[in-house]
Amino acid sequence: MKLNYSIVIAVFAAGLMIFPSCSKVKSLVGKGEKSKTTGWAYNDPDNGGFEYHSGYQQATGPGLKFVEGGTFTMGRTQQDVMYDWNNVPRRVTLPSFYIDETEVRNVDYLEYLHWTKRVYVSYPEVYKKALPDTLVWRDELAYNEPYVNNYLRHPAYAEYPVVGVSWEQAVDYCEWRTDRVNEQILIDKGILNPDPAQRDENNFNTEAYLAGQYEGSVNKNLPDLDPDNEERQVRWTDGILLPKYRLPSEAEWEYAATALIGNSEEERITDKRIFPWNGHWVRNENKKVRGKMMANFARGRGDYMGTAGALNDAGDITAPVNSFWPNDYGLYCMAGNVSEWVADVYRPMSPEDIAEFNPYRGNVFKTKVRDEEGNIAEKDSLGRIRYRLQKDEELVGRENYKTADNRNYRDGDVSSSIVSDYEWNNPEHQTQGSSRMYVQGRGQDGSDFSSMVTDNSRVYKGGSWKDRAFWLAPSARRFLDQKEARDDIGFRCAMTRVGRPTRK
After folding, report:
1. Number of H helices, E strands in the chain
2. Residue 218 forms beta bridges with which residues?
3. Residue 399 in 3-state DSSP?
4. Which of 134, 155, 263, 373 reaches 20 to 30 Å from 354, CA-CA?
5. What is the pLDDT of residues 460-502, one digit of tens each?
6. Taking the model in full, what pTM does it have?
């Protein structure tokens, strides 16, 4: 039976505007509107049913705040008392993006653990891999055992930032969150049914769904304007699903934390900042709350929260994620409480190497695994689309990049080393797990020993409850191996803004 396509278009367009939780498309353009290129009518089944959506406006995903991009001077704004010389000022431009209002809470991470344990019944190692390291609280000369047992799971700490999470675990959390948010969008629109019974590889994954490999409970599909089909599933081109949640880049995090939009008048920035607030002090200057600490940090040796009756930051360890005052982007605890993982691979000279637009070090370019016929290969046992590194032979003739793994580009690869190609490629001189450039020498057993800087070193930003005020500056940068975790490092997620950089 053929559908009445004038009714289909009206119903489909109206449906896209109902739910504020997902991206918004004003409508399919009118059936009579024609392509300026071919003269063929858009959204006309008599013309093949090519669909053109107008007026797209990305919705703000759960937990996120919009950060309007622009140019700023990234890097050191205070005296480099550590003499690291690893954050030389550099002017860059960032596109607009979204970032979490707060750090990821214990309750958020427990929701992730609960889902993982419930769904991956046949793969309990997935749940075990996701578990935070609660032993990070232990200290040889301190009684922190109550935090080992209580901090993650006791409801008293539900609103506190999750810690003991490695960079790799944070990345996995972001991927999980993407799928849960997009699944809920499709449920809200009546396209999918809630499916608490999903198990193992049959769980909802955004990429698997878009590739037609999701076998869950579908309530209904969208009407298809292609005259050969009556219905279809949601496509990425519909603008219904949200982009991925991910870790912010170092530049994004620093830009959002500094929040110079509060000191901007037209294109003139009236005052720069050392901290996410104005001034070189760490106490609130407003009359009603004058003298209150602006962040949770260690004021001095042995002073983590002040004197009883007048606690200076009221945080013996971490504090609830919405403590203190938000910055001018509405973000909480961008200084103090916990330091935060960002996406970048660490190099001390990155500020001098990074691109001027949307800078980031850590690109590893991959492509979907395909079968012999060129179709996307079947998803893996966890329900995810499989990827592989691009091969060098696939990049022949390409000018913008020459290899898939660019983590050590211009700092740690052969082109940036003073050793010969023979030395570099000779197995006797190669170093497992770190770049040849950072090898410091050879031990008595014949093995190389190297710097802690490797391709798995990840940047973390911001001061924590254990740090002095120096580290509260958004420009400060430190690094840790991506598999390690600590009791003073957490994270927050970000999301790409597609389309126009302004919401006006």
Report:
1. 9, 22
2. 192
3. coil
4. 263
5. 999 999 999 999 999 999 999 999 999 999 999 999 999 999 9
6. 0.90
